[in-house]
Amino acid sequence: MKDPGFAKPHAGTAVAPTARAYLWLRESGELWRMLFDQNLAGVFCSTVDGQMLECNLSFARMFGYDSPAEIARRPGADYYFDPADRQRFIEKLRADGWLRNFELTLRKQDGAAVTILENVTLLPAERGQPAAMLGTVIDITGRKHAQEAMLRAEKLAAVGRLAASIAHEINNPLEAVTNILFLARTHSEATPALRELLLLAEQELARVANITRQTLGFFRGASEPATTSMATILEDALALYQAKIRAKNIRLVKQVRFNGLIHARPGELRQAFSNLVANAIDAVPDGGNLMLRVSRGRDWRTNMPGVTVTVADSGLGIDPQHRKRIFEAFFTTKREAGTGLGLWLTREIVLRHSGRIRFRTSSRPGQSGTTISIFLPMASA
Ligand SMILES: Nc1ncnc2c1ncn2[C@@H]1O[C@H](COP(=O)(O)OP(=O)(O)OP(=O)(O)O)[C@@H](O)[C@H]1O
Ligand SMILES: [Mg+2]
Fold first, then answer.
1. Are residues 98 and 125 in the same domain?
2. What is the mean pLDDT of residues 29-46?
3. Span 98-113, pLDDT tens digits
4. Among 83, 217, 320, 360, which has the highest number of CB atoms less than 10 A from its own CB?
5. Total domain count for the chain?
6. CATH, residue 293
């Protein structure tokens, strides 16, 4: 572009040169070119079939290309449009002649998703020429993610409040019933058989009290850290599922290669591992395999020493479309049978222990399965 000579303001004549430059730009047609090139929004003109006729740098960058020329070399629009979305887009554009604030999720050159907001005007076909459209596009991917993250955080906070308030509300009547049971059991008229029953009731109630204390503790983050044996924690987690494991004829393999004493909150870890075991049991078919391993490990990012616990199953694996979401609160594929809180909670507990969690999964027939690994540093809590 030629230098319009307007970049040097001098005293007293600030308005005139600016106006002259503007007129010059407008008359030479450069004004629109400059606004086009400099626009932070993507601006484009393409055939309705998607062949790019012209676009600016912002548009090209939005889709992962280095230059407008590079994007113009791509044939058609299928490389960045999902066919169903494209259908919806074209139908609406043909029906109305324009689109305003139309939201779409498209693909970048590297396959990553980009969510855009688009304004488009249809330029009707003439004398055998294909119809074209011109439009502007802004990238709202970041805004969408932030909104989703906020929604998730809000949901989690709500669950926390709810669980804590339920636990709290249960505590008072629980104490009263515990006291009543004690009085009944030690009453002079109670027969030995009745005493026995009341003692059982007291013990069961103590378990309920323990659960509410743990729930409150979890949301307060107050359960006491202690020297904890990972092998014992795993045994405890397994103990809860003995009956299920037997009923499903699951072949259980335990490998304790390392005593794995760490400083952690045992109650929380028990909860974390029992969630993993429960998922594995749900996932395997009758006669399937479940493998648990405790070994010396290192943080796969910082190389810090600690213990790695692995829970592997020979189930169907996790569907590729679900893999990104399994740690989300309320994400479940089990309908009414699942709350979708298991893995979310597990991950929260692991992160609270400065640990890491990752998984590998395969749905390939004959060798399908899922392996979840948790690393916990020596001084976890
Ligand atoms: N070992 C596994 N094999 C296959 N899919 C799994 C496995 N573990 C988790 N998943 C998938 O991840 C989803 C989320 O798991 P998560 O434990 O959070 O919830 P859930 O098991 O569905 O419900 P809840 O734990 O409350 O019973 C499951 O619904 C399932 O689709
Ligand atoms: Mg679960």
1. yes
2. 93
3. 999 999 988 888 888 8
4. 217
5. 4
6. 3.30.565.10
